[in-house]
Design a protein that fits this description.
MetI-like fold; flat
Length: 235
């Protein structure tokens, strides 16, 4: 029996698709910004921090990178409210906030390793020259270490940001109404499972392409001296 595609029922619930798409974009933007900042802070802590801060940052990275994101998501979703109760706080964050926190924590660990690799590639002579100019440690880190380090590892960061956006589909298990959750609701209402997930897969593909294009423009704006061929080869 030949299968007949019927996309009409799926596109009748465009409202769910759009709302889920917007939620996916919001989660990705928040997690990308927060995870990047967390990764930079932890990368500096592992290189220039005290013994305690180095141990804390290293432990955080190892735990996150060696456990599944789904387990981390459940720990945040159910662990944070429980910890709040221990301190007498009756706080019940929304699934959206919990998902944002979990995604940011997960991304931050991977960004830490990527940025740390970039910092290790900075020549010591370059740092010594900055110190001879009486620059403060923060100025040296920001302008002499971090900026060129990001130029070296930005393609790897781009790939990690895209993976994080695609991985946001997992947060549907804690009732966050993002794109995958919207797809589950649509297919349960229309019984057109294949068509629903085919449309959603195409949307994720377009999102990944658009995100890579935007980040490529960012690279071109910040580091115009970087050859285009080098950007493509590194990505």
């Amino acid at each position: 029996m030949d299968y007949v595609f019927q996309f009409g029922a799926v596109f009748q619930r465009t409202d769910l698709i759009v709302s889920g798409l917007l939620m996916t974009i919001k989660l990705s933007v928040i997690a990308t910004i927060a995870g990047f900042l967390l990764g930079v802070i932890c990368a500096r802590a592992t290189r220039e921090g005290s013994l305690v801060s180095r141990w804390l940052a290293t432990t955080y990275v190892e735990i996150i990178r060696n456990t599944p994101f789904l387990a981390q998501l459940y720990m945040v979703a159910f662990g944070l409210p429980q910890m709040a109760l221990w301190f007498g706080l009756h706080i019940r964050p929304s699934p959206y906030i919990l998902a944002s926190v979990a995604l940011s924590i997960n991304l931050g660990a991977y960004v830490t390793e990527i940025v740390r690799a970039g910092l290790d590639a900075i020549p010591k002579a370059q740092v010594e020259a900055a110190e001879s100019l009486a620059l403060t440690p923060f100025q040296i880190f920001l302008h002499v270490k971090l900026a060129p380090a990001l130029a070296k590892v930005f393609p790897a960061l781009t790939s990690q940001f895209v993976l994080q956006m695609l991985g946001s589909s997992v947060v549907s298990v804690i009732a966050v109404q993002e794109l995958t959750a919207a797809a589950g609701r649509i297919q349960s209402e229309t019984f057109r499972t294949f068509e629903t997930y085919l449309v959603v897969t195409a949307i994720y593909f377009v999102l990944a392409f658009v995100l890579r294009s935007i980040l490529s423009l960012v690279v071109r704006a910040i580091w115009p001296w970087m050859p285009r061929g080098a950007r493509r080869s590194r990505a």
